[in-house]
């Protein structure tokens, strides 16, 4: 059987990334040029700056991905690229590049949904991992519970009604003076704090709902901080971080386990930037062990935005016969 090589490109937010992936699960190269330092100056991602940086970096990143894999463009079987959701100006850079390469080299073009990419990171991490399973996708832009019945077959069980989980981490971090991106900083601070120090709400919504809501929790943290300041009382950032994190994680774990049980699946996968959160990993692992479930978690480098995960998703579309035309357009609010 012939090996399939995919050159993948990802530029939906603030990482310019390219990768070469063999047969879906073997990463031959994974190049990520992060713009985080630049955006940190502004306390968050500035879309216009992201697009410009993608334009500057993308050629070099793609060349390096091919060089690191010790392969040429001619040896690729297809070009995979994220075409949504994300920042439209950022998406357009990667997509235009992918189209140009596909056209010039005469290779098929395969558009990939960014969230599908995040989920597929699990196939790279665990070579035997396969559907059906329940996926919790938590990142700076998304919080979705997705039932994956087969490769490329997704059913959204629930999603956030307001802020994404990572967004809540970032906003709370800013409120307690920890800077951007807040997720890793809260994660680290929480290890030194008491999770029971402050009683923040757990937002479960309606009894039968798999949706999430994090803006109320975020407001509760902000109110608490303001009240403490007003009273001249002490603020212990580590305790706030630990207490906030416990509220988020309890809800994420509980809804994911409930959804898995409801679908009769015994496998759970974490995906997205927040999946590298240590408390989420630990609590989910404990819950899975209690229920006899298997938990798949990608390494942190595969959790945050990267192109290897896009190459994996593109591979499964490729073998399913999916091909996109050069009229493929970026879609900032693409549905899964
Ligand atoms: O998947 P990702 O790189 O980009 C999006 O597609 O959004 O996720 C970035 C998000 C940020 O909000 C960041 O604060 C969060 O993931 N994050 C974390 C951790 N590492 C990254 N959140 C909690 N704990 C972490 N260790
Ligand atoms: Zn992402």
UniProtKB/TrEMBL annotation:
Location (main, coarse)? cytoplasm
Q: How is the cofactor bound?
A: Binds 1 Fe(2+) ion per subunit.
* Positions with a binding annotation for Fe cation: 114, 118, 305
Record-annotated residues binding substrate? 137-141, 170, 183, 187, 277
Ranges for domain Gcp-like: 26-311
Task: Write out the GO cellular component annotations.
Answer: cytoplasm
Mind listing the UniProt keywords for this protein, alphabetically?
Answer: Acyltransferase, Cytoplasm, Iron, Metal-binding, Transferase, tRNA processing
Q: What is its EC number?
A: 2.3.1.234
Return one Gene Ontology term, BP aspect: tRNA threonylcarbamoyladenosine modification
One MF term from GO for this chain?
Answer: iron ion binding
Q: Which domain of life is it from?
A: Bacteria
Q: Which SUPFAM superfamilies match?
A: Actin-like ATPase domain (SSF53067)
Reactions catalysed, semicolon-separated, are: L-threonylcarbamoyladenylate + adenosine(37) in tRNA = N(6)-L-threonylcarbamoyladenosine(37) in tRNA + AMP + H(+)
Q: Name one Pfam family in it.
A: TsaD
* Cofactor(s) of this protein: Fe(2+)
Q: Where in the cell is it found?
A: Cytoplasm
- Which purpose does this protein serve, as stated in its record? Required for the formation of a threonylcarbamoyl group on adenosine at position 37 (t(6)A37) in tRNAs that read codons beginning with adenine. Is involved in the transfer of the threonylcarbamoyl moiety of threonylcarbamoyl-AMP (TC-AMP) to the N6 group of A37, together with TsaE and TsaB. TsaD likely plays a direct catalytic role in this reaction.
Q: Which protein family is named in the record?
A: Belongs to the KAE1 / TsaD family.
Identify this protein by name. Answer: tRNA N6-adenosine threonylcarbamoyltransferase
Q: Which organism is it from?
A: Anaerotignum faecicola
